[in-house]
Write a structure and sequence with these properties.
Blueprint lengths: L3 E3 L19 E10 L3 H9 L10 E3 L4 E3 L16 E2 L2 E2 L4 H4 L6 E8 L7 H17 L8 E3 H5 L5 H5 L2 H11 L11 E3 L10 E3 L8 H11 L7 E4 L11 E3 L7 H10 L9 H11 L12 H11 L5
Parallel strand pairs: 1-4, 2-7, 2-8, 3-7, 11-12
Antiparallel strand pairs: 3-4, 5-6, 9-10
Helix pairs in contact: 3-6
EC number: 3.5.1.28
GO biological process, one term: peptidoglycan catabolic process
Keywords: Cell wall biogenesis/degradation, Hydrolase
Length: about 300
C-alpha cells in the first residue's frame, strides 16, 4: 500500500504551472522553515499561492506524505539565486541537473512547533523517498542532494548545520550496501536466464498510483514515468491517483496500448467504455468506475505481477 497520498493542487502559474519536466535525475531535500506547519497546511498554502514562484512535489510531516504536484511536472523548488561566484550565479550542479526545477523531485520536510525535524518526520520521509525510488530506480545514493548543495541556500538548515544527517538519511533509505529496500514494491530477479527482463512486483492495494502506472508502462513498453498523462477528470476516473488531469484531451500512450489490447477506441483517455472493458476482461463488476480502492485495479495489479494480462 502506498504511503504517499497523491492529492494534487490546482493549476497555478506561481506553484503548479503544469509544465512537463525533462526527466527525473534526482531528489532534492528541503525543509519548510515554517514551525508547526503540517503537510496538509502546505498543500492549502500552495493551492492558493500568488505573487511568488515556489512549490515542491512532496510534503512530509510526522503523520503523512502528500504529493501535491504530479511527479512528471515542474515544481519551483531549486533554481533560486543565493549568491554569485566570479560574477556568475552559484549553481555547482548545473552541469549535472541543468535547471533543477525541471529535472528533480523536491521533498519538503515539515517542522514541529519548536522548529525541529522530528524523528517521526525523518522516518516518514525515508518511507516516502523509498517509494519514489521504486518509481525512479535510476536514483542512487549519490543522486539525493540538499537544497544547499544545489544553490547554496541554508536548506534544510538542520542538515546544513549537521551534514551527517543527510548521510544518516541515505543510510536509512539505501542501507549500508547502497541498495534501496521498499515495503511496497520490489524488483523481481528470478533465477532464470539473464536476458529475461526484470519487472516491478506491485503491492495489491487496489490503488492506481504511480507504481502501478509505471508497471503498466513497463509492460506495454511506453515511457516509464509513473504518470497517466493528459486525462479528462470525471467522477468515474478521479481516483486514478497517477493521472495528470487537464483539458487537452490528448490522452496517454499507455492507455492507448491498453485500449488496443481491450479492443476499444484508442483515444488514450480512461473513459467509462475503457474502464468497463477492463473490468470485463479482468472479471470484476462492470460499473465503469475506478473506486478509491478498486477491485479492478487490484485485479490489474495481480495480473501485472504475473507479467501477463489476460
Amino acid at each position: 500500500m502506498s504511503f504517499i497520498k497523491y492529492e494534487y493542487i490546482n493549476m497555478n502559474k506561481f506553484s503548479r504551472p503544469g509544465i512537463r519536466n525533462s526527466g527525473i535525475k534526482g531528489i532534492i531535500m528541503h525543509y519548510t522553515a515554517n514551525n508547526g506547519g503540517t503537510a496538509r497546511n502546505h498543500k492549502t498554502y500552495f493551492n492558493n499561492l500568488s505573487g511568488v514562484y515556489a512549490s515542491a512535489q512532496l510534503f512530509v510531516d510526522d503523520i503523512e506524505a502528500i504529493c501535491i504536484i504530479p511527479l512528471n511536472e515542474v515544481a519551483y523548488h531549486a533554481n533560486d539565486i543565493q549568491k554569485y561566484v566570479n560574477g556568475q550565479s552559484y549553481y555547482p550542479l548545473r552541469s549535472i541537473l541543468g535547471n533543477a526545477n525541471y529535472s528533480t523531485i523536491g521533498v519538503e520536510m515539515c517542522l514541529d512547533k519548536k522548529g525541529n525535524i522530528t524523528e517521526k518526520t525523518f522516518q516518514n520521509t525515508v518511507k516516502a523517498v523509498k517509494e519514489l525510488i521504486a518509481i525512479y530506480p535510476n536514483i542512487t545514493r549519490e543522486k539525493i542532494w540538499r537544497h544547499f548543495d544545489v544553490t547554496g541556500k541554508n536548506c534544510p538548515a538542520p542538515w546544513v548545520a549537521k551534514p551527517s544527517e543527510l548521510e544518516r538519511f541515505k543510510d536509512a533509505v539505501f542501507g549500508s550496501n547502497g541498495n534501496s529496500s521498499n515495503n511496497n514494491t520490489s524488483l523481481e530477479n528470478p533465477s532464470t536466464p539473464a536476458s529475461k527482463p526484470r519487472y516491478i512486483t506491485l503491492s495489491v492495494d487496489g490503488k492506481f498510483g504511480p507504481a502501478s502506472a509505471r508497471r503498466l508502462q513497463q509492460y506495454f513498453g511506453t515511457t516509464q514515468d509513473g504518470v497517466i498523462s493528459h486525462q479528462y477528470k470525471q467522477k468515474f476516473n478521479q481516483n486514478i491517483y497517477a493521472a495528470q488531469f487537464d483539458q487537452t484531451l490528448r490522452g496517454s500512450n499507455v492507455i492507448r496500448a491498453l485500449q488496443k489490447l481491450l479492443g476499444v477506441s484508442q483515444d488514450g483517455l480512461m473513459g467509462q467504455a475503457t474502464i468497463k472493458a477492463l473490468q470485463k476482461r479482468l472479471g470484476t463488476t462492470q460499473d465503469g468506475i475506478i473506486s478509491p480502492v478498486s477491485n479492478v485495479v487490484s485485479a490489474l495489479q495481480k495480473a501485472l505481477n504475473t507479467n501477463k494480462l489476460p
